[in-house]
Records
---
Amino acid sequence: MAENSLDKKAIASVLEEMSLLLELTGANPFKSRAFANGARALETLEEDPATLVIENRLESVKGIGKGIAAAITELATRGSFSDHEELKASIPAGLLEILRIPGLGAKKVRALWQELDVTDLEALESAAKESRLRALPGFGAKSEAKILEGIAHRRRYAGRVLASKAERGAEPFVEMLEAHPRVRRVSLAGSLRRRAETVHDVDILVAVDPEDRPEVMDAFTSMASVERIRGRGTTKGSVVTAGGLAVDLRAVAEEEFPYALHHLTGSKDHNTALRSRAKAMGLRMSEWGVFRGEERLGARDEAEVFGHLGLPWIPPELREDRGEIETADRGELPDLLEPEDVRGILHVHTTGSDGRESLGAMVDATRRRGYRYLGISDHSVSAFYANGLDADRVREQAREIEALRPELGDFRVFHGIESDILDDGSLDYDDDLLAELDFVIASVHSRFSQDRETMTERVLTAIRHPAVTILGHPTGRLLLAREPYEIDLGRVLDEAGRLGVAVELNANPQRLDLDWRSGRRAVAAGVTIAIGPDAHDTEGLDDMRFGVGIARKGWLTKREVLNCRTAKQVEAFFRRRRRGWTPRKGVRMRYDRDGDPVS
């Protein structure tokens, strides 16, 4: 394969965009669906598409016909697809940006383009403010208001990308620099190292001797993924990748490396606070070192940098000036959660609802990753958009799990459901069916625009149901796409702590919800945190690392995380919620604060 060939996710992304472009231009809908189906087929593949291309086996994959196979072959061999490039060049570039506004699919964007000559966000904003959108079918005053909110949201986060995308984009640069013979040390820095949810750019720091820096900068700026060089000097280079990711490289002397790494990692407020501490100690601190007079104090690593200021090493995730310096000074920094502390996974979907892989495949993939248990939680019946399970299919899945158990040894599969929280806070199954499940994740998936009091009462009503063991993605946010819904999260956390309901930290990179800023608030309320990847395929299981990163950033330790317990302990946690509960057969119930049924 050529050096500029694309991986599976990148190829699937191009196919998905091709499907949208065809729909935008009014092409045959069957052709558009073929590309969308091809993208989904690729996402479920365990093999590398390049291998299928070489062995001429692409057309043997369900969902990939002759035309799609040809497109994948071109993408896998030369890194682009000529039909895609031509089609993309034939439409206004701003239409793809408009497609990122929530509620605007390809059909609606085509109507805006064809009927109102709306081709970019500025034109869309003007049309919405002038009430011209409501003249089109499917638009009204409410949709105009939502579109204006969406535009404001896009602008607020312009230039930012998900940490997961930044991590993928940074990986080839770091690998190249680690292998480069002139590079002595290399590390990610900046907000990506602090485990921020979204980042503006990627910062990479290297230790390189001065005479070798031009050679290293040449290697950096000539990477295959580089589309544009923003700047290039002997100590700093800046590029933009073909995917739009800004990557900055800083080169320093080896003796400066620990100080520069600390400076480039910490938030502005953290660094300012440390410089003030240094000054109070009669020292001077900058990105180049800690100085006593003109003498720079030596440091082999960041631990010694902190040591010069009378502090233990502070983990990168905590460097936000949110009490970490004072806590470190008292010797009270927590032992943060580590990836190896997590023993099992809760919250995954299968082909039973909207997942892309079978129950068996999800179980096997979880076992291969070394986990000891898995919680299956497909969507419930109200989630018609996600092929939610009715009562018969829930019980059929229970039988499927039971049939697997003799082959699993001491690996445990918990049978759960992700139940929609309905408008009044009730769940969408009768109590007797809920009682048959090992656990229930209750989540809001609709009516996000409810006011703060209504949404808060809705969620509180849901978690008071004795069957509910976990509150899913508690604020409903989608990073860079949708703001959290209005909710009094403090009241919800207090009630969850009182009831013994776990609150999810959804590890999907687009959610990362519970927000890390609420981590200590949750712990203070006595809340147990359940980290769940919300995985819809086997690759999604690996999103657990993003959840662990956010948990660390929220000051969490393994004591506060449900998944760090053994399978037996998790089972006991699930059962404790239901103690004393007598479910009523064939009745869908709500419960009050005291656990009594509400008619």
---
Amino acid sequence: MRDVILFAFILVIFSFTEALCQREFQRENICSQAKSRSFLIKDYKNIIQTPLLQCYDVKFYFLDLNVENNTIAISGNVTFNASVVTNVLDTFAFELIDELYIDSIKVNGIGENYFRNNDEVFVPLDFPLPVNDNFISQIFYHGSPPTGDFFSGVSTEYDSTWQKNVTWTLSEPFNAREWWPTKQILTDKADSVWVFLTTSSENKAGSIGILRNIVPLTGNKIRYEWKSKYPIDYYLISFAVADYQDYSIYAYPSNLLNDSILIQNYIYDTPECLTFNKQGMDGTKEMLELYSTLLGLYPFHEEKYGHCLAGLSGGMEHQTMTTLGGFHFDLVAHELAHMWFGDNVTCSNWSDIWINEGFATYCDFLALEMIAGDPWPEIWKNNVHSFVLSEPDGSVYVPEEDVTYDNVERIFDSRLTYWKGALIINMIRFEIQNDDLFFQVLKNFQIEFADSTASAIDFINLLNETTGKNFNEFFQQWYYGEGYPIFSFSWKQQDSQFVINSVQTTSKPESIPLFNTKLPCKLFFNDGTDSTLVLNQQTNADFFSFPVEKTIDSIQIDPERWILKKIESIIGIQETDIVSNFLFFPNPVNDQLFISSAQNDIKEVSISDLYGNNLIMIEVKQPSCMLDLSGLSPGVYFLQIKTMLEFETKKIIKI
């Protein structure tokens, strides 16, 4: 897996090399993007989860584990506190891969027998539990899970740069079962969690929440006791263990009155590692303060935010303590944004992973826009648009049938889930035409679904309610649909009117034949001034007319790249202004164009494209004729009509 260094944070300014402008945007070093290829080497079992997992609601997880910095071997016990939500619970079920050995299982303090089937564990209860009963199950286990790629539940590595061993976990999307007994259901967040980690005394072990205690033990061991009171999804629980040092700083969001938020960084315990990463870690403070302003106060402000440096190529947004491979600007910004989108509000199903990844990726852009500054927002937009437009199809929404254990690459498709997903949010911002209202939508979403899960439908409903607009068609086109619009424009200035024609085709017409979208058009005048108009494309061929007093030199369509699109041509048209002696219709035309002359003097009729290429030419010996345009692609064309005395050119639109 390739690690692409994107940005380095140097004091309060950014120093970049020109080569970074050409960075590959199918990058593998942000969050789950790193997973888009490496999983292919792993043989996943295609499992359908047992319905018994839905029979109880998890209230609390307690992981009490023995871990080391140089092995994937793991042992200990995991406790479930849960409540029965079915009429009678006679079998307790959970997930744990077959490679991990179960020593014993207790339910409410009583040892129970169990059986295993395809990485699921079933515990028939001697005393079935009625609805609303609370119960405690404790599973003792040990073993060495499979490893070797980004998707491994537990990985270990020797970092030759810093000469340190490190072991870390990664559970998204289906890998928690590879290192602890769990319930991998997104909509069942535990209300709280403890993670106790016993390791050799020269190590530090990082995890979620607050480090409540460090307990020295016999045998040169030490236990780190992490506790979190916030609701959490199964895949956001983690640990990382190494010979770490603790570099902690504080953020001071304006909406946290006279208080601060701990930013706790576990990095390898060498002076050089601290020097190398210090500026990147320090940059987290400004990002956390920015996001707290734009999105609402950091959701876990009563605990902390932090990082554990590890050997993975990229990062993973473990709640309150991201695991990452370096402190590059985009990576830090992306993983921090997940604390709002992904951790506080989690996608309710993997089909709507956009709730996590699309928004976090757009927050990369917000950090570039409001912290890094020019030219980096423009570089981001140019590269992202180019990457998304590199293929003609694909929806941001992941169809349910594509969400399988052996199709992780589709869930975390970098072009669709991340980059097209981010551009959709930028287009919503443009459609709203009010930044205060746009960011209020994001804040409301965080408030409405805090500590819970949400789907794209939930976001659409909240967006409609907050803005008073109807975005249903927008999402049918851009989120559920495939492809993007392709435009051809022709324009002219006549008297005091600016007239522009927009012809739209699409890259995937069988999915979306028309994107009903707004499009900014910037006019440049000969006195050095400019003005921006908004075109609202509602048909495949639209005419727009605006009063303009100044002389137009040129125009640009969407120069700030708000809308995902391709533009094939922008042509300034000069039509003959004499009174026409001819009749031609319909215009716009589908297949057949009718032409007639009252004077019966047409000699030749031809059709050419915007580049002057002659496509159709016929000689005429009658007062009227019919041209068959069925072989032409939709777009703008010129109709030339010749007589013995004159030559007229008219613009036609083929739809």
---
Amino acid sequence: MSTADEIKERINELPKGSISKKQVNGNTYFYHRWHEDGKLKEKYIPEEDIAELKKRIDERRKLESYLRGFHSSSNGANHEFSAAVRLGDVLKAFAEPVRRYRKRGCFSILHEYIYGDYPDKVLILYGLRRTGKTTMIRQMILDMPPKDMKKTAFLQVLPSTTMAGLNKDLRYLEDNGYSFVFIDEATLLDDFIESAALFSDIFAASGMKIVLSGTDSLGFVFAEDDELYDRCIMLHTTYIPYREFSEVLGINGIDEYIRYGGTMSLSGTDYNKTSVFRNSRSTNEYIDTAIAHNIQHSLKGYQHGSHFRALQELYERDELTSAINRIVEDMNHRFTAEILTRDFRSSDLAISRNNLRKDRHNPTDILDHIDIDEVTKRLMDILDIRNKENQSIDITERHAKEIREYLELLDLVEYIDVLDTNGKISERTIITQPGLRYSQVESLVESLIQDKKMNDLSLTERTCILNRIRNEVKGRMMEDIVLLETKLAFPDKHVFVLHFPVGEFDMVVSDPESCTCSIYEIKHSEEINAKQYRHLIDKDKCDAAEHSFGKITGRYVIYRGNETEIDGIEYLNVENYLKNITK
């Protein structure tokens, strides 16, 4: 059977149509809708079946798109491709829709590889879903002069594609003068990791420029370590700093980055309507399909599954997403068995309850009177979090350690040192996709607004309290974002949080070579008051910092207002700071 026939056969096995939802008496119901024999048909879908149905519908649409662009022969040659291939006018049409899109900063690395001198090397373009990989390839194709575009092919690996078949495709392209080949989702090949050297040792060594792209980040990491070693250039797209989020998507404001940052879903004013992190359901789906499935697929293909280790059972019992959600929700994002198994209590709710109680201007104890158990139960249902009695596996420190290892490989976590003047005392874990973290805050709000005591408040009072809860979390997240981007921007300096017996510097940037440091407070506020910088002018704290980390050369408050200077303290606007620091 030809590959085209296989695609058609698979399409016929998959559902067509779309998923719609209806609100009835305050409840949400989901329906599968499709046309058959000229009539619209509709079928109710239980909520637990939605993710699988959506996955199958998306697969059908993707295969239909591949079939439309399927190229089975060229120049009269009788070659049937194993992969779905775009060449010539079909390739140009495939690339054209992204012409108006702005380019990510890492695009220059792709361009340099295509036109630079990199003998025997392939480029691996990898990262989680919706971080701009395919868009970058299409932009690269559009940037090519016509003579090079004629020598360019885009191959999409299909479920039926084998390494042997792909090898024949590449030999055919090589024989027919193709010099630039982009291979998408190469890790779908069953034996990709063990056979990856084929791309560098055979085809790149013959002068062909090969770009391998895909969402299976761990699979590419394993291939680099196992087969490709020093014959590949790794270009990771998962981490998207504020400057890129703002400039590429045309969206400004630290709060928008906190709410939706982490993917390159769509630009313009409708961005948040289609963001991966627009609600808890879509976020859970992202964690399950983009992160948990990424880990599972990579481990399954690496050394015939021998590296599955403890996470296989978590994934197979549908409990890996629950574990990841617990870690993300925990205030300190700790990777411990205790965090993964204790009775769940929302850290966001606990911190907000304490801060609302002691608010100097409008204190309230409303969160002491809500039904904590019911709010927590609803939140757990939304986030798919299970307590120990509902877990089918005894989670151990081994599970926690492996989750940490793989989230690090996926570039989803980073660490900031927490010091006192005697040295390191701990580390602060930062989630690098802000929208992933913030969606949990909206899940908490979703649970709270169903509480009777909250609904006894007026709309104005309720809105004020819920926004204060949101802002509490935004404040902590803004600190994390500034710390992370500063650390990545200055790899030769030490960026850390400095604790004192009473109080702290939110950020210290120390230069060991010059024996100098700068000290910072980070505030999610547009207002200025002396309390914000009281630690920065505290003589005892500054003397202790200078003794351990060198002369203080700058004192700053990073906040959301206008830039100014007060009492020798420079106030920096957070958006300007983040845009300039990564240039």
---
Amino acid sequence: MLRRFLAPGITSFIVLFVLWFTGYDQIVKPANDDRVNLQKYIQAQRYILDNYVDVVNADFLYKNSLRGFVSNLSDTTLTIAGTPLDTTFTDVNIREIRDAAIHFERAYSFLASVDPDENLTARTEDAIRGMFRPLDPHTVYIEPTQSDRIREEFAGKFQGIGVQFDILNDSITVISPISGGPSDQLGIRSGDRIVAIDDKNAVGFTNQDVIDHLRGPKGTTVRVGIKRPNIESILNFNIVRDDIPLYTVDSSYMLDEKTGFIKISRFAATTYDEFMTAMRDLTSLGMEKLVIDLRHNPGGYLEQAVQITSEFFERGTPLVSTKSRHARFTNTYPTRSNGRYRDIPIIVMVDEGSASGSEILAGAIQDNDRGLVVGRRTFGKGLVQQQYELVDNSFVRVTISRYYTPSGRPIQKPYSDGREEYAYELRKRDKDANSDAGNFIKEIPDSLKYSTLAGRVVYGGGGIVPDHIIQEDSTSSYIYGFMRRNNTSFDFVREYLDANNDAFRAQWHDNFDGFRSDFSWSETDMSRFWGIMAERGMVISDTVSAPEFRNDSLFVHPNYFDEHKWIPQGYTKAELARQVWGTPYFYPVFNDEFDTTLDQVMQLWPDVQALKAYLESNRSRSTTLR
């Protein structure tokens, strides 16, 4: 009976699979969720078998996928022994993907028959995750609901009206219009509250509601009603949606008369263009030296990282190479022309959050002795992924190759102990950056020691150890944490601008440099800030010797308060810059107030010159010996 029940389904599935495999999936579309799920499963397995960096077989993938398929069954009492769901795999030998298709369809159909209420789409996704789990941590399944957001993030733009917003007291509040976007061009500004969209009440909207209503195809129009502080009537704007850039160069400005600073948050499709624009602007301001901040940059598109890196080298300089069992994913990436900034002195800032593309850039700078890498040991991600779309607009991201820095060193840290251990490795590092680097180097085998162009020793197998270790800024405060957790800084600045917007803009809007150096909060302003903190549960009391949380309230001793009260003053100034001028202006003020590591970086320029001289000396000696 079971054979009679399954046979028609298996036959139809095999036909569907053959059509898809031979390229006809665009003609024969799945007619229901079951066929979508089954096709998706086979697509995911095929992409691994065809593209994965290491050799894997269909039997290994199938058995792990079935373990995933049954891992979250709604009916925990379901008997699976001796059924197609049995994970003991007695007499199961999957020789090719066709066998996997047949066996998975049996398991899928059996579960549908014994538990009709089971969410088979979710179980199929569990099967794909189970299939991937024994592979590397960066080979992952991406749900359809996540794919649009990720695609936008790495495409570098979306389509909409161009505002940063937050929901405050059920109102859509504009944090800042995105520079050059349609809202900015119409004069919408920070502090405006969107109370109506297309003549319908928008009070009470969630974040997703706002996105659903304000984003839309380029060229379409949305009507918004805005309540502006100190203006009684509602202001109506007809906004034509357009491409809105998602900037990846968070900030660029001059640290002093000769030193430029560029912070890159990730490597997306527009990063190189953004970077070059920033470089041209800084050069016009007299930049002669450059600090590139890659702290907390998780990477992104390899090509974008390579393009940026190539601007600092002569033609033919090796930057990175990739190796795979597939010839199509094995490449070398030298510079193809002389970089426009090949002579400018460089310092690259990194930390444990710098990964992938950040490590490619930092590794090329370090291995070629082109500049200094400073900060803390990087994450250690030396794998390259490619993304493939599945039938339901979900994706699989598959590791296709490993990358190597110019000296030949692999950056990837170990992942053989599983994904959880891999993810938590950062927590196990010594908080002292010198101790972390020292312990790492002490355990490195000779096989993972490499040499830079000038003969300096560098290390592989666990991220990049900087040339100069700089400890993490230890500035911390319970008061700061309480302020951030309760969103007090944002609300305080928003209230200040509501009351003082016109006067503030008249004095400072066209004079950011003056604001950065001369603005400070008045005693009245800060009294109001501390009043909001008190309303939200901060208590100054000599009944505690150390900060203490009691439910949602924070109790601090007066001495502790006096020692830490400067921190919110600085942070709220940076938040004020963000709300008036936009996110890129947050960082100059924040760095002025808090980033002590930048002060240390600025003392290292003599070392950069010494490294250049050392490299030239070694080159000269090498030429003489020949």
